[in-house]
Amino acid sequence: MNKIKAILLDADGLVFKKQRYFSEIFAEQYGVSKDLILPFFKTNFRQCQEGTVDLKEELKPFLKQWNWEGTVESFLDFWFSFCVADEEVLKVVRQLRAKGYKCYLVTDQEKYRGQYIKKNLKLENELDGFFYSFELKSSKSEKEFYEKILKELNLAPEEVMFFDDEDENVEIASELGIQSVLVSGAADFEKAVQKNLYKY
Q1: Domain span including residue 166
Q2: Cα–Cα distance between 13 and 20 in angstroms, integer?
Q3: Is residue 14 part of a domain?
Q4: Stated pTM of the model
Q5: CA–CA separation, 93 vs 104, rounded Å?
Q6: Could you give the number of structural domains in the chain?
């Protein structure tokens, strides 16, 4: 078996503390029906994650319907403020990097939140790189996403390990030969790392 060289880490649900969907939080705080909000996240936002349209432009027609009186920028600031890195997960990531593993964030992400993650959360100092769906033009639910990552890293599937909290993503990456592990939260992640990585 080849030695693991790179570790792929899910963003929301692993590196970031798991919480309710932003659409649910916003609907509750601003007294807006989720029926007015969900269509955006099921259609327009997914196109933003694919990198085919711009989030700020897509949001403009919706904000009045959602009772938001501020600017698009202030809305994004409010939205992204709910993104909080899990310090317990980052502690494990630091240990992995100290042992020589390269660690990368992999996520279905549009460009503005992607920039926020790198800069505002200072994750550029914590990780070796970032793989975003809007840049790869494919999502974690597609084999193409992982194929592009393998090509960019110039690694064989057996040299990569992937941690995610969704079965579908784990199964798809596994089909390519990437060692993929389903985890839920910091404690589960740490146990999985000890079981699957520290033996190498």
Answers
A1: 6-18+84-196
A2: 10
A3: yes
A4: 0.93
A5: 10
A6: 2
Does 116 share its domain with 156?
yes
Q: Tell me which residue of 38, 41, 11, 34 sits closest to 108, measured CA to CA.
A: 11
CB atoms within 10 A of CB 101: 19
Of 80, 102, 124, which residue is a domain's last? 80
Tokens of 43: 């259609």
pLDDT in tens, 37-83: 999 999 999 999 999 999 999 999 999 999 999 999 999 999 999 99
pLDDT for residue 112: 97
User: Do 76 and 117 sit in the same domain of this protein?
Assistant: no
pLDDT confidence of residue 199: 59
Q: Residues of the chain whose pLDDT is less than 50? A: 1-2, 200
- DSSP string spanning 26-61? HHHHHT--HHHHHHIIIIIHHHHHTTSS-HHHHHHH
190 to 15, 73, 137: CA distances (angstroms): 12, 36, 31
pLDDT value of residue 2: 47
